[in-house]
Amino acid sequence: MSDNQNLLAEQRRALILDEVRRRGGVRVNELTRRLNVSDMTVRRDLDALARQGMVEKVHGGAVPVAEVRTHEPGFEAKSALEPGAKEDIARAAVAMVAPGSAIALSGGTTTYAVARRLLDVPDLTVVTNSMRVADVFHSAPAPEPGGGARPGAATVVLTGGVRTPSDALVGPVADQAIGSLHFDVLFLGVHGVSVEAGLSTPNLAEAETNRRLIRSARRVVVVADHTKWGKVALSSFARLEDVDTLVTDAGVSDEVRAAMAEHLPGLVVADRESGAAAASGPAGEGWDGA
């Protein structure tokens, strides 16, 4: 997108619309930097596009109208969104995991980031319905000859099931496999988080599989960057009260942070600069696997 601040409004809005369709959504702060215009100008442009039925405004940005409730982006498309925030979240989330734990990871690009950092935690049993997450462990570098097992070696169980666009496995096979297991902690990715709708996904089968994961977990940790707040997809599968801890990134606004802290038992906000995490609530004080 151009950085020319003298673009005509029609040109600017065409560029914004193209970006929304290409990426599946945009943030106001991203557009102000790319277009070199004010926050107010971008918001007026989004208002105009929304009145024309071209986009739907969400908290902090806009998404395509046709994709608000039912569209499920592919894994590669989602991987390009907020990569730095996902790494911050993963770093904070893995600090909650003790060696020897039984861990479950749902599908998603944020849980994928968590999985890569779990490679350094020894003696884990990992259950996942994500083909991408399973591949993280299966493709990890082998130890040097004579060096023994890789320090972070884990036993990985892939549930089976029907593949979604984001490479998660869902449906009766996945549900049955998950229902017979018990996890110390579940790291759960979501499409949307809101006070009214709780956790939601555009995929009905994935909603049921996520419910099974939650029921099988002693502790539920949602990993979701700040762009997920305020989004509501087709199917809700859990209330905020069903979550023990939500781990998000420092891009979350003070207003949203207050709402999260009010409705979630525990909140952890990853701080990229210090490498630390700000916690609130009893569940946000860390977990030692006990």
Automatic annotation (TrEMBL):
It comes from the Bacteria. Residues 9-64 form the HTH deoR-type domain. Signal peptide: none annotated. PROSITE patterns: HTH_DEOR_1 (PS00894), HTH_DEOR_2 (PS51000). GO terms for molecular function: DNA binding. Keywords: DNA-binding, Transcription, Transcription regulation. This is DeoR/GlpR family DNA-binding transcription regulator. It comes from Streptomyces tamarix.
